[in-house]
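Predict the structure of Amidinotransferase.
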Amino acid sequence: MSVQSPSSVILIRALNFTPNPSTAADNAFQSEVTDGKSQAEVSQQALAEMDALAEALREAGVTVHVFEDDELTRPDSVFPNNWVSTHAGGYVAVYPMYASNRRLERRADVLEMLKNTYRVQTIVDYSGLEPDGIFLEGTGAMVLDHVSRVAYTARSHRADEMVLERFCADFNYEPMAFDAIDSDGVPVYHTNVLATIGTDVALFALDMIKDEKRRWAVGERLTVNGRRIVEITEEQVREFAGNCIELMGRDVDGRPQRIMAMSARARRSLTDAQVAAIEESCRIVAVDIPTIELAGGSVRCMIAGVHLDKRRDVEREFTAAVEAIDEHPTTLDGLTAPRG
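Done. Here is the predicted structure for Amidinotransferase.
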């Protein structure tokens, strides 16, 4: 298991996907459906894209936990990274969400799966801050360096610094907040559209940090342990080149292999030199998800990584041991029961 790259992920299979009208005002990456398709057609296309991502990740050796969502009231449920994150040592965070209809995405069954399948020690729930108008939308608002324990965060009303400081104190991260603005002067709504942090490589639109000193500080902190920065442009950010995630999969021989999961649109926006720099560290897995990207998020937003240790399946191990004894009873010849 890699500190930075989870080998298991959570995906939500949203049967009623649609771009969320409640988030359109401050999400410059969101688009309207303009080609005359019905809601049913849009949902079916999005569903096929979700299934394609799940299949591509499984083929790459990643464990994928898929949850169905047939609710009409959760248009953005395909993006679970905004409401839940997991952390080494058995810690889970639940986050306060800006749009009121997105708060319905939090699901007890996802948390129960985590507790039953993985070692969960503590769940820290910040969602009670929502009535006070204080928000921190998970690993959309923060891009986490799990190796150096740094939380890179573009300031916005979806990423309150007070909650950021509280999260960092609770989970032992160093907060690194900055202002990121596009060429129209609009603040970037989520940090994970402009930055991806892997083990040995980071994709980052540093030029969108307008303060020169802060830009230098972010770049210096990213590379202090030898990580290479692949700088991406604002145009590439708009193609979702920053909205990627490094995962731990397997190669064709079953050996551990890091992958960089991204959309096909993001992959097409990268130069040959950028691709080569990424592939020095991990293999690119790209999936076409144009319908889902209408909602203003891409592959990274669709994935909640699981940074937890698995529980041993004691019952299954016991059953296997009993079956092995039944199949090979002669292995017990000559043994006597212990006294007492």
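The domain at 8-320 is CATH 3.75.10.10 (L-arginine/glycine Amidinotransferase; Chain A).
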